[in-house]
Amino acid sequence: MFTALVSPEYAERHNQEKIFAAGGFIAHGIVPANRDTDAYTGWFYALLPGSPEEANREQVRPLPAEDVASILRAERDRYNEMALSDGDSVWADAARRIDDMLYRLECAAELSAET
């Protein structure tokens, strides 16, 4: 398992359910900051099966797991704040989905440490 940014084309072509069943995810909706000069604007954070060496570098950019975890934690915290401020359960539901992604990252790190 490895963490990465994936292109929208990659996310569309690869079956989210298969990635999820393998212990990974594609965080649709959580993307890098929108900057005109950023080549990865619109890409998604992901935890993918396999290794970075196997990745198609045109559509997958490996990233350190701690960077992805930090971004996910910040988004989760932001969603929890929005849930508290406006009472909309959509934000709380999204925060729980991010918690699941963080749990998957932790499990992948533990498995990696064992090998």
Q: What does this entry look like structurally?
A:
The chain is α+β, with helices and mostly antiparallel strands. It has helices at 8-13, 16-21, 65-86, 89-114; strands at 2-6, 25-27, 44-48, 60-62. The protein has a four-stranded antiparallel β-sheet. Helix 3 (65-86) packs antiparallel against helix 4 (89-114). The longest helix is centred in the last third of the chain and has 26 residues, at 89-114. The mean pLDDT is 89.
Give a short synopsis of this structure.
This protein has 115 residues and is of the alpha+beta class. 52% of the residues lie in helices and 14% in strands.
Coarse structural class: alpha+beta
Largest sheet: 4 strands, antiparallel
Overall geometric form: globular
N- and C-termini, Cα separation: 12 Å
Q: Segments where pLDDT lies below 50 for 5+ residues? A: none
Portion in strands: 5-15%
Helicity range:
40-55%
Order of strands across the biggest sheet? 2-3-1-4
Total strands: 4
Mean pLDDT: 89
Radius of gyration: 14 Å
For this entry, what is the oligomeric state of its chains? single chain
Number of helices: 4
* Order of secondary-structure elements: EHHEEEHH
What's the structural blueprint in terms of helices and strands?
Elements: E1 2-6, H1 8-13, H2 16-21, E2 25-27, E3 44-48, E4 60-62, H3 65-86, H4 89-114
Antiparallel strand pairs: 1-3, 1-4, 2-3
Helix pairs in contact: 3-4
